[in-house]
Amino acid sequence: MSKSLEARGVGKVFDGRGEVVALQGVDMHVPGGGFAAIVGPSGCGKSTLLRIFADLLAPSSGTVEIGGLRPEAARRDKSIGFVFQAATLLPWRTIRRNVELPLDVARRSTREQGRADELLRLVGLDGFGDALPHQLSGGMQQRAAIARALILEPEILLLDEPFGALDEITRQRMNLELLRIWGETRTTAVLVTHSIAEAVLMADRVFVMTPRPGTVSTAVDVPLPRPRTLAMMRTAEFFETANRLRDALFGNDATPNSEAQPMEVAL
Ligand SMILES: Nc1ncnc2c1ncn2[C@@H]1O[C@H](COP(=O)(O)OP(=O)(O)OP(=O)(O)O)[C@@H](O)[C@H]1O
């Protein structure tokens, strides 16, 4: 059973050459096995929030629970998988050895290591286990990063703009692949994205964040059935949901807030 995610009143203040209030009073609930997306203008704290969920950062206030556990305990439990915008593969290790890296770090037995090949098949990299990262395209490297995030069978998968650096066609293909993988693993997924269209295509519920200090202003449910297809992007339900998100982000005049940085609004 995948774990639910619950954030209550989460705040984050960075102390440096002055205080930056990055997050304030963030509330969020993602049911076990659900797929949530987070959208918001650049700098509103999306990555900060995901890092707090993953126990890579401590919140300044509020609480986070993953299946009833604090992030620190969930991370110790190997319940959390994280995919960054860049694949961050080790260039000297083969793709298989990169995918196995979390097993090495966790000192898991070699018996489990056949799992890497299973996962490479799942992410469509069958036959590339012995290749080095530089021999793979950007999309293929990101597939390997997803396999690496899944190898400890996490109950929650956190994805920070995983396909942001890919071209549009590869990105759409990767979105469908990610949905297929999610459908097979049924891990809880939280995706940070700049793209309204991507959020609607992927998620059950989209959380909209305000500019700094970031907080969740609205949650929009996506009424599309599953499995999702690219053809659904041309339906009235899709347009209507995307418009609701755009209104929540920019107001009814759809004029970006002056502090807001680029946000993909095109469908
Ligand atoms: N380590 C840090 N020290 C100081 N300020 C930070 C730190 N990390 C993030 N910030 C600030 O916190 C705010 C939120 O940053 P964050 O990267 O979470 O935003 P984001 O919504 O993910 O942005 P983007 O969409 O551009 O990736 C920004 O103003 C950023 O400058």
TrEMBL record:
SMART domains: AAA
Membrane-spanning intervals of the chain: none
CDD domains: ABC_NrtD_SsuB_transporters
Pfam family, one: ABC_tran
Entry keyword set: ATP-binding, Nucleotide-binding, Transport
InterPro entries in alphabetical order: AAA+_ATPase, ABC_transporter-like_ATP-bd, ABC_transporter-like_CS, ABC_transporter_ATP-bind, P-loop_NTPase
Domain ABC transporter: 5-236
GO MF annotation terms: ATP binding; ATP hydrolysis activity
Highest taxon, organism lineage: Bacteria
UniProt similarity note: Belongs to the ABC transporter superfamily.
Record-given protein name: ABC transporter domain-containing protein
Organism the protein comes from: Acuticoccus sediminis
